[in-house]
Fold this sequence. Notes:
There is one protein chain. By secondary structure, this protein is α/β, with parallel strands linked by helices. Helices cover 32% and strands 19% of the residues. It is globular and about 55 Å long. Residues 405-415 have low confidence and may be disordered.
Amino acid sequence: MRIVADFHIHSKYSRATSKDMEVRSLSKWAEMKGINLLGTGDFTHPIYFSELKRELEEAEEGLYKPKGKTGFPRFILTTEVSNIFTQNGMMRRIHSIILAPSFETAEKINKSLSKKGDLLADGRPTFTFPVKDLLKMLLEIDERCMLVPAHAWTPWFSIFGSNSGFNSIEEAFGELAEHIYAIETGLSSDPPMNWRLSALDRITLVSNSDAHSPSRIGRECNVFECELSYSAITDAIKKKDKKRFLFTIEFFPEEGKYHYDGHRACNVSLNPKETIKLGSKCPKCGKNLTIGVLHRVEELADRKEGEKPENSIDFKHLVPLAEIIGEAIEAEPSSKAVEAQYEKIVFHGGSEIKVLLETPLEELKKFAPPRVVEGIKRVREGKVKVEPGYDGVYGKIKIFEEEKKEESKQISLFG
């Protein structure tokens, strides 16, 4: 079965998250997006956990569906936790995704974690013990659990982050490193960037949305062709099985908000070479720059750009449909005009991912404006320009750059 999975999202009980991040609303959006397997997010939060138990029932082994609902999506029990601790004289801040195979196992995880921190404080709880101990605890509770380092390269809260991370999986997890089978690439990196580290050749690269609102689910996700069950899906990840794990759907990494180095307060964005020349100081105020993902990859890489490991899983770069429509009609992606076009296109096309990846262009022309169809075509061909994100500022996609320049010329000549 073809499975499109987004494992990493948040509930309404996480900070800065939409009140619509709950089962019924997520189910509706998952159908529009084309996601048929969605992480619950935040199962560590006691109130949300009670809601999940009340609203979901088991469908297949380790997977759940809303009670009384036929069809898809399915849900898989997931959460993200934060570990902030000192190791080797340095403060570490690591975020991890946890996948659990059942409510019984998730309940045991919650019971253990409740002794170490306040689970009610946030949907993504924070603890002060080493991340290695988190992995050890999970394996002792149920060896079917998976821990996946989240958004592995972001500067502040990740395993390889420039400000609080490690230089290797082994440095973080010691003798338990063999139980780390996957890392999440995050919005600011993509597989080719990760391929530059031969130490990651055994690791499966997964991509997820880390969504805080329903409209953002599926902006990055994973595509499988396998049995619909927790065991089959996690086994495909653990074994890096290219026959069952087909590809990931990725942002153009420049669009992520930590791709370049920079200083948001001064509107300074720099590539790694410029940062090195400046001694990692902001050229406007002299404060330390936030070292971005591209720079950090360069620091740890032992392969040249463009080299591809033999066992690498494929990927596809996409731009969210609302962003394509927004640029095509020159409106904000969150505007009512974009929303109306989005709903029309998805209604006729079946789902956002199907429209972006599979629907023939000639078919799209029957229900989508020509400029939107052209935008989808260009994204499929990789013909986009991106102004890189930096220090918490998302990058900006430009699909119709040349036309805008031409229009400006015509206005100046004939306006």
